[in-house]
Specification:
alpha/beta, 403 residues
């Protein structure tokens, strides 16, 4: 799928990124893999597009009230000229979840500002994604990985709930206005009918970061059919925890007629070997630093819900904020998420990080002397020969996005 250039920054859902090749190259790859008995699964990102997608370019040019804007989630801003965002909701990447369109309206982006969220109430959006599924299935793709599968449907009815009431993204009842809403399964029921129209039926797996009790709906036979079991990925490297995760996953299969897909790691997180080499349970002398380290890196997904609190803590402790990312993110050079140059304590450049960003760390982790204006960050390094966490520094210069 054509991206610019990452798989979650989509310019065209029915093309291949030119730096990776062409559709002819894809077809040749698929034929070669199938000849070797290997299945081909492509990742699809239905929650958002790139801000360079033709639809979004048209939406910005069309202006307020135009039908082109209904493909996305534009809302009027607050203030005399709409100079303020519609509400105080926050992006998962930090900062406001709204970006200005330049005419008094703002558009919703639950991730980066370069990734505007689509409006799944719009029939054109739904029909176009059906065409996308057919496009790849007709080319011989065996299945689809659904990125941010618990997104898509949103309740933007007013009055908007304040962020403090919805900052906890996981709910057991499907009542969150932005995530894991019950009506998202209407979309996947339509998709399942498309998948089942092929012989053999096309496979699908949901990346749905939801309450464990709600995962089975994504993995049911009338929905996507599979869902990543993130509990396996998040479990400590201990037999009792793995036993619990496995038993719970098997119970979901039996009780709900669903499947479970065990997940050890993914591109959003430090590599598996790095995670498994994290410290064991702490001794009394290491308890404080181990707890902070585990909060940041070992419970690898915690930043998604704790990021706002982490940002406040680091500012209170150092008067600064730090958010960096490794080269794999691939955002354009003018992006507010553009990588900042960080240096390790030895002065070498920061290495690629599968965790994609540096998270502000509590002061208790570090004993090294530093100035009050410095923000300390932790990088889970994944370069060759380096599987241990590495410290690095960033200046207290405000970060443009979310600072």
């Amino acid at each position: 799928m054509r991206a610019s250039p990452t798989s979650s920054h989509i310019d065209d859902h029915r093309d291949v990124a030119p730096e990776l090749g062409s559709l002819d190259d894809f077809d040749e790859m698929a034929r070669t893999l199938h000849a070797a008995g290997i299945k081909v699964i492509v990742d699809i990102v239905p929650n958002h597009t790139s801000n360079r997608h033709p639809w979004f370019v048209q939406a910005l040019a069309a202006g307020s009230g135009a039908p082109e804007r209904d493909r996305y989630l534009f809302r009027d801003g607050l203030g005399r000229g709409g100079e303020l965002p519609p509400n105080d909701w926050e992006s998962l990447f930090g900062g406001s979840a709204w970006a200005p369109a330049g005419d008094g309206q703002w558009y919703l982006h639950l991730f980066a500002a370069e990734q505007p969220d689509l409006n799944w109430e719009n029939e054109e959006v739904r029909a176009d994604f059906g065409d996308t599924l057919h496009f790849w299935a007709d080319r011989g793709v065996d299945g689809f990985g659904i990125d941010v599968a618990h997104g898509l449907r949103k309740d933007l009815s007013e009055p908007y709930p304040p962020w403090g009431e919805i900052a906890d993204l996981m709910r057991e009842d499907g009542s969150h206005p932005l995530w894991d809403r019950d009506d998202v399964h209407e979309i996947y029921a339509d998709w399942r009918r498309i998948f089942n129209s092929y012989e053999p039926p096309r496979y699908a797996v949901a990346e749905a970061d939801v309450h464990p009790g709600r995962r089975a709906r994504y993995a049911s036979a009338d929905s996507l059919g599979n869902a990543f079991n993130f509990d396996m990925q998040d479990a400590d490297w201990r037999a009792d925890q793995y036993r619990r995760v496995i038993n719970n996953g098997l119970a979901d299969m039996i009780n709900n007629g669903s499947t479970t897909s065990w997940l050890l790691g993914c591109h959003d997180l430090p590599r598996v070997a790095t995670c498994w080499r994290c410290p064991a349970r702490p001794t009394s002398t290491r308890a404080t630093s181990w707890g902070s380290m585990r909060w940041l890196t070992y419970r690898r997904r915690s930043w998604r819900t704790r990021w706002p609190a982490a940002r406040r803590r680091i500012r209170a402790g150092t008067g600064a904020g730090c958010r960096c990312r490794g080269p794999p993110m691939g955002f354009p050079t003018d992006s507010v998420l553009r990588a900042r140059i960080c240096r390790s304590r030895t002065g070498s450049a920061a290495t690629r990080s599968a965790s994609r960003r540096l998270i502000p760390t509590p002061r208790s982790i570090f004993t090294a002397k530093r100035s009050r204006s410095a923000a300390s960050c932790l990088l889970a390094a994944t370069s060759a020969g380096s599987s241990r966490s590495r410290m690095c520094w960033a200046s207290s210069e405000p970060v443009a996005y979310g600072a």
